[in-house]
Write a structure and sequence with these properties.
The protein has helices at about 10-35, 40-50, 130-135, 140-155, 175-190, 210-250, 255-270, and strands at about 10, 60, 65-70, 75-80, 85, 90-95, 100-105, 110, 115-130, 195-205. Helix 6 (about 210-250) runs antiparallel to helix 7 (about 255-270). A hairpin with a 2-residue loop joins strand 3 (about 65-70) and strand 4. The longest helix is centred in the C-terminal third of the chain and has 38 residues, at about 210-250. The chain is rod-shaped, with a radius of gyration of 39 Å. Helix content is about 45%, strand content about 20%. Strands 7, 8, 9 and 10 form a four-stranded antiparallel β-sheet that branches. The protein has a three-stranded antiparallel β-sheet with strand order 1-5-2. A three-stranded antiparallel β-sheet has the order 4-3-6. The N and C termini lie far apart (about 90 Å). The protein folds into three domains: about 10-95, no CATH class; about 100-205, Tetrahydropterin Synthase, Chain A (2-Layer Sandwich); about 210-270. By secondary structure, it is α+β, with helices and mostly antiparallel strands.
Length: about 290
């Protein structure tokens, strides 16, 4: 069921008309009482009963609000025009907020793609864009948004690791991609509820308490290994460049044994985690 425009008119002219009618009814009562004319009193009573019925047709529409109109359970339309409005007196009028809303979800515990238990929470920014779907497609659209957002967060978390040192996207390192994936997942679930998800962003991310210390040590070890791999790759490239330059410029001729020794010394200097101690060789190239 899609939203459509409901019938309503500006309420001020109707209010003025009813005031004129009320003045006429008052005049009839006064004339009927003073002149002892029962017909005037009966006419005044009939007009008073008729004049009371339209009063239930008045309603107010606030900014960024919609009023869903129903007649005996049948949806007749939605009014979004602000101000005092008037419609059929028998219509029921349910207010639906069209303002942008947000909520910070509770922390939930779920396993990531590597099977590690983590704690995660997200902030969801949303807005009702179709009042008919929000009211008639689900029982309680606000509760529906909360439950489906948590479900989407759980499902999304299982597709990513908390952290990864390779090229895989991870929850900790690829924030924008993760947030967009989460927003798309929630929007897919809420599309039939007349709700638009404006933004979804992870607000809390941590390992579960029972493995936090162990995973911190593992994370540090993985970071050290990854850093060492980069250092070794760079060191090998620098050694290759140094040997090529020495050979190209003819600085000195190195036999395989001395070349191996030079490679070993350069790798120790470049890959070592402590400062090296210089050794001054006062002999020839082939005597220490």
């Amino acid at each position: 069921m899609n939203e459509r425009k409901g019938f309503s008119i500006t309420g001020i002219p109707v209010a003025l008309l009813l005031l004129v009618l009320a003045a006429g009814i008052l005049w009839l009562f006064i004339q009927g009482s003073t002149q002892s004319e029962p017909s005037l009193l009966i006419t005044g009573i009939v007009l008073a009963v008729i004049g009371v019925l339209p009063l239930s047709g008045f309603f107010q529409v606030q900014p960024n609000q919609g009023r869903v109109l129903q007649l005996f359970g049948r949806y007749t339309g939605t009014v979004r025009i602000e101000g005092l409005r008037w419609t059929h007196p028998l219509f029921s009028k349910r207010a639906v907020s069209l303002r942008i809303r947000n909520f910070d979800g509770d922390k939930i515990k779920v396993n990531d793609a590597d099977g590690n238990p983590i704690e995660i929470a997200a902030v969801i920014v949303w807005q009702v864009v179709d009042t008919a779907e929000a009211v008639f497609e689900v029982d309680d659209y606000e509760s529906f948004v909360h439950i489906q957002s948590e479900s989407a967060l759980r499902q999304m978390t299982q597709h990513y690791a908390y952290d990864a040192h390779d090229e895989r996207p991870s929850l900790r390192s690829h924030g924008d991609e993760i947030n967009e994936h989460l927003r798309a997942q929630i929007q897919e679930r809420l599309s039939k509820a007349g709700v638009k998800v404006i933004e979804a962003r992870i607000s809390h991310l941590a390992y579960a308490a029972e493995i936090a210390q162990v995973m911190l040590q593992r994370q540090q070890a993985s970071a050290i290994v990854a850093a060492r791999e980069r250092i070794v790759e760079g060191a090998v490239g620098m050694v290759q460049m140094a040997l090529a330059k020495i050979s190209e410029m003819g600085i000195v001729e190195l036999d395989p044994e001395r070349k191996a020794a030079m490679v070993s010394n350069l790798l120790v200097v470049l890959c070592g985690d402590r400062a090296t101690q210089p050794v001054v060789n006062t002999g020839s190239l082939y005597s220490g």
